Here is the input.
Amino acid sequence: MFHQLVIFIRRYVNLLLRIPMPTLASGQGELKRCPQLLKQNKCANVFIVTDKTLSQLGITKQLTDYLDSEQLSYHVFDEVMPDPTIVLIEKGVTKYKQHQCDSVIALGGGSVMDCAKAIAACVVKNKNITQLSGLFRVRKKLPSFIAIPTTAGTGSEATLVAVVTDPIKKQKFTVIDPCLVPQFAIIDPLLMVGLPAKITAETGIDALTHAVESYIGLHATKQSKTYSIDAIKRIFQYLPLAYKNGDDLTARTEMSLASYFAGIAFTRTSIGYVHAIAHQLGGYYHIPHGLANAVLLPHILDFSYDNAYKKYAEIAYQVGLVAADESEIVAANRFVGTIKALNITLNIQQSFPELKSVDIPILAKRAISEAFCDYPVPKLMPVKTCENLLSELLICR
Ligand SMILES: [Fe+2]
Here is the structure.
């Protein structure tokens, strides 16, 4: 009863909340728009948050060449690692202040964007990131912020959340505030061409999970469902193509838009158990977020089936998996079957070699606690069921 009440109240708070949308520039070569955007916003010294891989691939240099050509100053902070930690964010804040920057560019995947958002939030609030953990603790405009995703999955370029890792507690926490939605998103598929097939697959399923968890969750609205369906349709069609041929620019473009639209959807509605469990696996074992989601998604769809099959069927009809005259059961089964088949096409593993049975009780407890009241799931999962689900992923190794 308490849970239902909280979910009900949250749904109406969500509806009242004004979540901004980034100004979007999308298309091949759009990276070159950066100097113009910075100048329009009177920014002269930008803090570029990225990672070593992108620097080594020369992608960071592509960006700084554009900035050099317009005599814009910058400082490159390319120390971001997967699952950004409190210490890393503190280091970024110190560098930002030391170099007296006035704006931020996040160039990279989800970890880079989350790290950049967290740094920007700490700078404007003059607080450390743990003090900003939770809902609506920022409430202050960030410096001009341009998000440039180099993977198609996280959707962080459109979301109000930053995920931070506390390595001591082996746990992730979130900073959630509409102020964290980037002011600009530049989606340039040329930046994704070199992405390895495995990362293409895992990040692509992350985007799919955002769209699906948003759609089947109790906070979904007509608007969020439209964005989810758009994303799911593109992912079913183009993720196998992007996986098979990373140079397929049409597939890269469609996947980058799918990721963005899925981000728009879930940032207005929240996520579900796939993410709740994946966050624990990331915090404990550093299992990549997209991979954890990909392995878990079919299991959670099976678990939620009896409460959510009508929504599975709606998705199947709308993305064209079945004809309109097929029964809901046939449609729902086709949807779940399509996701399982997609995992096979993308060579997604079926278990987690890192997972230790001794850790399962704490992982399950934390996952259920993360989701409780915060994630509007279609069916509540007892801790014991979550333990059993994780045990299956251990046994079928
Ligand atoms: Fe995700």
About this structure: The longest strand covers residues 103-108. Residues 206, 210, 275, 289, 293 surround fe (ii) ion (CB under 6 Å).
